[in-house]
Write a structure and sequence with these properties.
Structural class: mainly beta
Strand content: 35-45%
Low-confidence stretches: 1-18, 51-59, 490-495, 575-584
Number of helices: 6
Radius of gyration: 27 Å
Mean pLDDT: 79
Number of strands: 42
Shape: globular
Length: 612
């Protein structure tokens, strides 16, 4: 017998403590279907397509370099017959060489040599919550950068949604950000934001990009609380020697061999407790400088010219040591927002007296600003640092604090760190930023003519491991279901939900309802029975998100299942190749699965992974 309930959460959502504005939609004809040029007014490009003629009426034109500027090219999808999408062609470095107009002084292409633009129907105010969703693929695996512009090509700021990875298969992208002053008004002020620019020339071999189902929207964000409730992004701090690789996201650079690697965790020589450590290097000695043929050098007064040096592990010698020769990084999933308060509580010491400078980086090694939290003077005794202050303007878009551990060149030193928290206001941390990992699963739905439901299961083994709990029943009680724009708390493990044919949750019984069966800690599998109560679902697939939370009070970490509801016969045919928890799958620090890594920090099999 089917068992459903009325979605009590509908009323809870509207009676929350903070009101949010309605979404303002900025894209016309995001699915790329239609025939008239004005339908493409939301999509512009600067690319190097061939064989098109100038069209004065539509505003399309070529620059002197041969670059096309105007409405994006809308074509029939080469992969999906009958579907239309935007195609943008990024030229290769060889093609730019042949044309004689490379755009970078160093002889390489600028990433903005080819651009695609989402040109909004209205301006986007500062401080707003901005969300972009789209489908994207390319002829080659790669990525593109996102920037804030006024009109297409009128640059405001280098940072918008960060970088987006692309594969040769269509994939759905959903990213969000808070509109900063630099994004809304430009770095010098006096401007407005109305466009998002994609810098597509990130591959010297060139590429062809395809975009579809584009949506850009903004609204007034949820009002922040009064900074009494914090979300600690350092989920484990330095609790034990075996947890440092699980989303705490530290890395260390050992200057001796110049290799990036996860930061070492050792038993501290002072108290025997776990500590993060990074080694600096010092001069091994002095020697007389020789010329190109091996003759010793002397200055004008006849004194020998001396130089300091040290030897690396590979046997090579270095005669210079930068302050950042040895670095230690703390990276969190939350992007820093200027003016937003943060709280940092940490302990530090060193074998001998020393000092450490701190910098702002986007990701480890990607420098932005020379000062983060000032300079730390270290001693052999543990010292505590506790900061609660607004983020400086230069931190916009950063996620990392870098510690430069090689200020003292006279002797090697070992620095030790422990962290209690790196916290942000819980109202400013998005669900995406609190999501540790994601997983793709499918569930079946029968046709309306079938009276009984279709049954599918979800394996929670990886979810429980990632959230570090064995309390399966408690976990399921904290499920939320997301579809479209809304989230609803699950208040009953055996309750049912309805999903409308547009993918939104609904109180109506059309076209899909589902219920969750009994769960037990003895078997971490959740059985879901689905029912199709209408005709509009037949032959379709509907994406839904199940998000599970676990943690203390309301400060919860999440695990996300990207569920696709498919016809029962489709599910039956592919069920044996469903992919619950997958090994050797990489996620970025937001918990989003990626297909190809660029330089930066990732998570794979619950461990840190640094791609160069």
């Amino acid at each position: 017998m089917k068992k459903f309930f009325t979605l009590i959460a509908l009323t809870l959502l509207s009676s929350g403590a903070f009101a949010q504005g309605k979404w303002n939609y900025l894209v016309v004809n995001g699915d790329m279907e239609g025939e008239q040029d004005p339908m493409w007014s939301s999509f512009w490009c600067h690319d190097y397509r061939q064989g098109l003629e100038f069209n004065a009426e539509s505003g399309q034109q070529y620059s002197e370099s041969g670059q096309f500027q105007g409405f994006a090219e809308i074509i029939e999808d080469p992969v999906i017959a009958g579907n239309h999408c935007a195609r943008v062609i990024a030229r290769s470095e060889a093609e730019a060489d042949e044309a004689g107009n490379k755009t970078e002084a160093n002889g390489g292409l600028a990433s903005w040599d080819c651009q695609f633009f989402i040109y909004g129907t209205d301006t986007i105010p500062e401080g707003m919550e901005l969300v972009m969703t789209l489908k994207v693929r390319a002829d080659k695996d790669g990525q593109f950068e996102t920037q804030a512009h006024w009109t297409p090509g009128d640059y405001n700021y280098w940072q918008c949604f960060g970088n987006v990875s692309v594969t040769t298969e269509w994939k759905e992208v959903e990213v969000s950000t808070k509109v900063t002053s630099n994004m809304a008004h430009g770095e010098g002020g006096g401007k407005r934001m109305q466009s998002v620019a994609f810098n597509l020339s990130t591959n010297t071999e060139g590429n062809v990009f395809y975009f579809d189902d584009v949506e850009l929207k903004w609204r007034t964000p949820k009002a922040p609380e009064d900074f009494k409730t914090w979300f600690n992004m350092l989920r484990h701090g330095t609790e034990s020697m075996d947890k440092i690789g699980n989303y705490t996201n530290f890395t260390g650079r050992d200057a001796k061999d110049g290799t990036d690697r996860p930061c070492r965790v050792v038993a501290d020589p002072v108290d025997g407790q776990p500590a993060l450590t990074v080694a600096s290097v010092g001069w091994e000695g002095e020697r007389q400088v020789v010329d190109s043929i091996g003759n010793p050098k002397f200055d004008d007064e006849g004194n020998p010219v001396m130089e300091s040096f040290f030897t690396k592990d590979d046997g090579t010698e270095k005669t210079s040591i930068d302050d950042w020769e040895a670095q230690f990084f703390v990276t969190v999933p939350h992007k820093f927002v200027p003016g937003s308060k943060y709280r940092l509580v940490m302990w530090y010491r060193s074998d001998v007296d020393g000092s450490v400078d701190t910098q702002l980086h986007t990701m480890p090694g990607n420098y932005i600003h020379y000062e983060a939290i000032g300079t730390l003077s270290t001693t052999p005794e543990w010292q505590k640092l506790e900061i609660e202050e607004p983020m400086r303007d230069q931190g916009d878009g950063c996620q990392t604090i870098a510690f430069n551990c090689n200020k003292d060149k006279n002797q090697p030193n070992n620095f030790y760190f422990r962290f209690e928290e790196f916290s942000f206001n819980s109202a400013e941390v998005s669900d995406d930023e609190a999501t540790l990992a994601t997983e793709n699963v499918m569930l079946p739905v029968p046709e309306p003519a079938k009276t009984e439901g279709a049954v599918g299961t979800i394996d929670f083994t990886n979810c429980l491991s990632t959230l570090e709990t064995e309390a399966f029943e408690v976990l399921v009680e904290n499920m939320t279901v997301r579809s479209g724009e809304e989230s609803f708390d699950k208040v009953d493990a055996t309750a049912g939900f309805y999903i409308a044919d547009n993918g939104w949750l609904s109180q109506d019984e059309t076209p899909i309802a589902f219920e969750v069966g009994d769960v037990s800690d003895d078997n971490p599998m959740m059985e879901i029975t689905t029912y199709n109560t209408g005709d509009s679902f037949v032959g379709k697939s509907i994406p839904v998100k199940f998000r599970y939370s676990y943690g203390d009070s309301n400060l919860k970490w999440f695990y996300l299942f990207n569920v696709t509801l498919v016809p029962e016969e489709t599910y039956t045919g592919i069920s044996e190749v469903k992919t619950p928890a997958q090994n050797n799958v990489m996620y970025d620090l937001m918990g989003r699965r990626i297909q190809k890594a660029v330089k930066g920090m990732y998570i794979m099999n619950g461990k840190k992974y640094f791609a160069k």
